[in-house]
């Protein structure tokens, strides 16, 4: 046996030591853009994240809603693979289709309002399109839409200005008064048309709904969009049914795939990566993992992985270390893998991004992971707490919670994640079923987390992630100093726990 006598550490055992920061080192100047997939020296990665966060390949985390909202906020979700290939592909397709971007009426507009009222609202809000719903809420039935005339005509032949304002498609699809915004959107995408006229029952035209890519004015610059202006979405795969699953996912529009496995230093992953790249070439992007050391990283990088995930046993719902006695402290694993990634880059000129997966408890753990060399982090528990996770909100013992269960739990039964070529079943559990405290909408939380990351980067004198990785000074802390790091020797009035 080989003994590594140094203990493996977790994020909580490290702190960053501030470095010099100049007056230009302010949060507003910080960019947290980061590569998602590998690239050659001097070239740009095919996919770049606007924030260094992706959501875990888990039933209780990454469904359609999560994928849309995270992409809207600059990250990417990986839709869970522990469902049939058809169901997963359908989810991907729905995310790709949902590029609505219509602005729901935030007023109390109704069909009784005049066009002048609507235009006044448009001028006030600055929205280029306003959808009008019966009760003025985004979930209410949509009765019409008003778009900016000037903007709309600028996309058409100017000589057709007046005539074409409301007739950009000649085959008018007669929509019934009272469809919802999302139904209107489905019709647009299903019929591959650019707009949908909305009519009163008596046939009068009330307005139009436009495809998002027809109205790019509404885009948030931080949104994760690729060439057709649709949300970027990832999908989990496994090393068993990839020949059946991958074609369906690609056809549905998945932008990036990831082999979802609790332990990825195996020939199964190499075979899977080779099949995908031999079948589709390098344009199909696929991450692999998980590994916890240099050898594992090099194996997957050489096998063609487009990014490599690091982490075994550190996930909040994970009992792999207790069950099988395998794993490694997340910080130590990450530091070793990132050093191997840097050496590999020097030798080959190929940069393979590293994802730190699991075990992020506090927001500052994300900054630590980035400082240690991670390009982005994958989070399960963090996202499971938000409105957009697929699980219902409940009240348990007076606390509002959401359910969160591991892929290796009996509830998820994701046997393929733990498969070692045996029977197609989960023989023993490696994950638990749990609750996490409800934390509200993704957007508010992600914004706060990113603000903390940017502030800490400034403390370290860095305005980009590569600069942070280069400049960061990290120190191990003693158990006693961890106590010193929290509020201590005072009686706290309240603690909202919103950080975790
Ligand atoms: P966390 O963000 O909740 O700490 O960890 C999420 C990660 O835990 C996932 O991305 C995945 O790698 C891992 N995971 C998912 N299910 C299990 C399990 O059942 C697990 N053991 O370890």
Automatic annotation (TrEMBL):
Residues 102-162, 166-224 form the CBS domain. The keyword Metal-binding applies. CDD domains: CBS_pair_IMPDH, IMPDH. Belongs to the IMPDH/GMPR family. It catalyses: IMP + NAD(+) + H2O = XMP + NADH + H(+). This is Inosine 5-monophosphate dehydrogenase. GO terms for molecular function: IMP dehydrogenase activity; metal ion binding. The lineage of its organism: Bacteria, Bacillati, Bacillota, Negativicutes, Veillonellales. NAD(+) binds at residues 260-262, 311-313. GO terms for biological process: GMP biosynthetic process; GTP biosynthetic process. Keywords: CBS domain, GMP biosynthesis, Metal-binding, NAD, Oxidoreductase, Potassium, Purine biosynthesis. InterPro entries: Aldolase_TIM (IPR013785), CBS_dom (IPR000644), CBS_dom_sf (IPR046342), IMP_DH (IPR005990), IMP_DH/GMP_Rdtase_CS (IPR015875), IMP_DH_GMPRt (IPR001093). Gene3D superfamilies: Aldolase class I.
């Amino acid at each position: 046996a080989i003994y590594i006598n140094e203990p493996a550490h977790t994020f909580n055992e490290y702190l960053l030591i501030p470095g010099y920061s100049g007056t230009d080192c302010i949060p507003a100047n910080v960019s947290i853009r980061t590569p998602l997939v590998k690239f050659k020296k001097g070239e740009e990665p095919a996919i770049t994240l606007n924030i260094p966060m992706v959501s875990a390949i888990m039933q209780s985390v990454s469904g359609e809603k999560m994928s849309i909202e995270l992409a809207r906020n600059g990250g990417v979700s990986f839709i869970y693979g522990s469902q049939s290939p058809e169901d997963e592909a359908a989810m991907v397709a729905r995310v790709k289709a949902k590029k609505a971007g219509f602005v729901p009426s935030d007023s109390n507009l109704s069909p009784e309002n005049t066009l002048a009222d609507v235009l006044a609202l448009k001028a006030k809000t600055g929205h280029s399109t306003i959808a009008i719903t019966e009760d003025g809420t985004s979930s209410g039935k949509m009765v019409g839409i008003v778009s900016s005339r000037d903007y709309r005509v600028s996309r058409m032949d100017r000589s057709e200005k007046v005539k074409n304002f409301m007739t950009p498609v000649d085959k008018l699809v007669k929509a019934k008064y009272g469809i919802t915004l999302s139904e209107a959107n489905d019709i647009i995408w299903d019929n591959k048309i650019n707009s949908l006229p909305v009519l009163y029952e008596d046939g009068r035209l009330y307005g139009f709904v436009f495809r998002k890519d027809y109205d790019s004015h509404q885009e948030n610059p931080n949104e994760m969009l690729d060439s057709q202006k649709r949300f970027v979405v990832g999908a989990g795969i496994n090393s068993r049914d990839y020949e059946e699953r991958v074609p369906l996912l690609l056809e549905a529009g998945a932008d990036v795939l990831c082999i979802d496995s609790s332990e990825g230093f195996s020939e199964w992953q190499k075979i899977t990566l080779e099949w995908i790249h031999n079948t589709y070439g390098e344009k199909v992007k696929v991450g692999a993992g998980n590994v916890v050391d240099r050898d594992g990283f090099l194996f997957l990088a050489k096998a063609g992985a487009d990014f490599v995930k690091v982490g075994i046993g550190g996930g909040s719902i994970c009992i792999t270390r207790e069950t099988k006695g395998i794993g490694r402290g997340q910080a130590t694993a990450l530091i070793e893998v990132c050093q191997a990634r840097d050496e590999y880059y020097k030798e080959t000129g190929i940069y393979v991004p590293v994802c730190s997966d699991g075990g992020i408890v506090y927001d500052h753990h994300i900054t630590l992971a980035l400082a240690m060399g991670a390009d982005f982090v994958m989070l399960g528990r963090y996202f499971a707490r938000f409105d957009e996770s697929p699980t219902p909100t409940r009240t348990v013992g007076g606390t509002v919670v959401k359910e969160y269960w591991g892929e290796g739990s009996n509830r998820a039964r994701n046997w393929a994640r733990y498969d070692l070529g045996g029977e197609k079943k989960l023989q023993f559990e490696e994950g638990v079923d749990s609750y996490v405290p409800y934390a509200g909408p993704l957007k508010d939380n992600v914004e706060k987390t990113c603000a903390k990351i940017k502030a800490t980067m400034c403390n370290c004198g860095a305005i980009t992630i590569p600069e942070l990785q280069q400049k960061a000074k990290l120190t191990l802390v003693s158990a006693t100093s961890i106590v010193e790091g929290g509020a201590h020797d005072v009686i706290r009035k309240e603690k909202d726990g919103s950080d975790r």
